[in-house]
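Q: I'm writing a short methods note and want an example of a predicted protein-small molecule complex. Could you take the sequence and the SMILES for flavin-adenine dinucleotide and return the bound structure as tokens? Please keep the output block clean; save any remarks for afterwards.
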Amino acid sequence: MIYDTIVIGAGIAGCSVAHFLKQKNQKVLLVDKEGIASGGSGAAGAFLSPKIGVSSPLKDLTDDAFNFTIDFYEKNFPKHYHKTGVIRVPKDELDASKTSKYSKFHNAKYEELTSSQISKYGFDVKYNSTLFFDGGTCDAKEMCAELVKDIDFLCFDVKDITRKDDVWMVGEKKAKNIVLSTGFENNLFDMRYMGIKGTWGNRGDFSSQLKLDVSLHEKLSISVNMGGVIKLGATHELEVADIKPCDDSKAYELLEKASNMIDTSDFKLIKTYCGMRSGSRDFSPVVGKVIDAHRMFEYPSILDGRKYPTIYHENLYILNGLGARGFVLAPYLANELAKLIVDEKPIDKRADSDRLFWNWVRKIRYG
Ligand SMILES: Cc1cc2nc3c(=O)[nH]c(=O)nc-3n(C[C@H](O)[C@H](O)[C@H](O)COP(=O)(O)OP(=O)(O)OC[C@H]3O[C@@H](n4cnc5c(N)ncnc54)[C@H](O)[C@@H]3O)c2cc1C
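A: Understood, no commentary inside the block.
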């Protein structure tokens, strides 16, 4: 049997692509070395809120993805998306001074709240902040599993992929197309031009009776109380090279930070999660075809700034670099990628991975 597509990596990126390809009647096989949502996606607090700031390609992309994804989760997986509202608190005085400047760029339902209004929700914060009504949080693992519940899945570590007679081989399995959604690990191809690297993060789930009906994001995220459980999460440790075991002391660090904003006196740690999220060289997502960098460098004067037609690896695609917003961006971008693979519709330019190749060439050229 030849699959239409094998998706490698079953985080929120791979699960979303597999889902949208299946919606387009493709025969899909999903592969992961450790199981569904075993990487960064399983560790995520999975909060969803729009990006705050002035208009930019990344902000506008994130906001479009936010509106698409909320609608998608609510219609298809209402059990695992909790529309709690998210209060976005400025991280410092400078940030706070820009709150009203940024408001004209919001592209989602919101209300500005004073710190005394926020205290009625149970939070003690210094600055006036913004409540996004449609924001909320997903059950990370359950959402990934639901997305692919009717899709063939195999658990093995893909060591390499090969192509023969127009067919890709992944172990014993064959497919017309491959999608790489392997998160921060990128050993299957030369993808240096994308500059994918990992940022480490931690989450602690605590039992508590504290009444919290709205989620909040400052330097860390605090969820509503769902059946006696409150999630605290953050991803900030840059340039961590390797996966390390989860460490309860990190969850207690989150608890200490949270105690500046909420009453944590009855909090008891239930479980610590940790994982890596991946970001690209320019912090925007990478979606689309994979460029054959080696063949591109055979062009005689590519380093002199001449543009040549792009050469891609045949039928090889990627969805990666989702940063701190995988649960916001993945469904929107997976839908884009499915349209490219099945209908040959061009990818949303703001996420197209080609941009990174030409930036990389320019970087090499100028040292
Ligand atoms: C602590 C923490 C909190 C976070 N909080 C939020 C949040 O609140 N909101 C939000 O939107 N995002 C959040 N994120 C970010 C979000 O988790 C990431 O953006 C998301 O996980 C990226 O998904 P992914 O599918 O690209 O990568 P991953 O989830 O890392 O998936 C990659 C998968 O590929 C598999 N794999 C890799 N190589 C191979 C191979 N050779 N063979 C087979 N399988 C392979 C891995 O096992 C893994 O399962 C958080 C992340 C962390 C760590």
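A: Remarks, as requested: The mean pLDDT is 94. The domain at 2-40+142-196+281-365 is CATH 3.50.50.60 (FAD/NAD(P)-binding domain).
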